[in-house]
Amino acid sequence: MVDENGTLVAGTEKKYIGVNIKERKYFQTARSGKSNIGEAALNKVTGKPFVSFAAPVRTTAGAIVGVIIYVYDIGFLNSLIADETIGETGYTYIIDQTGLVISHPNPKLIMKTNVSESKGMETFTQHMEDGKSGVDHYVFEGIAKTAGYAPIKVTG
Asked: Which residues contact 46 (CB under 8 A, 6 or more apart)?
């Protein structure tokens, strides 16, 4: 539970109480009156990637007095794709709608690398960001690659 200023006032563990999330888009959207599924982000307390589900908390008169948030740890995504291989050298990874890596066999890239900013990947990531499905060729860290891709429509 988050107050109207973005400070957590109740949570599953004491370590979350007092943390402020007012800059997070999911909080701002819920604070404006819209329930939403947030973008992947790093948890301020645990440092782990998560996705949030946020909704406004209203008085009986309808005034918004806070936000209720469910934080869903998405670290399991790496467990799902870690052992997936395509051919001899292929692998899977997941990016968000901006190109930010949210799941990858190389944990150093998760939530730190935006493929749309990577030289050689501009066209490929633009197609993905546009919600297209397809196959493209690109270069990542100097290595020519081919990728098949498709949007995850339910989350954008």
From this structure: none
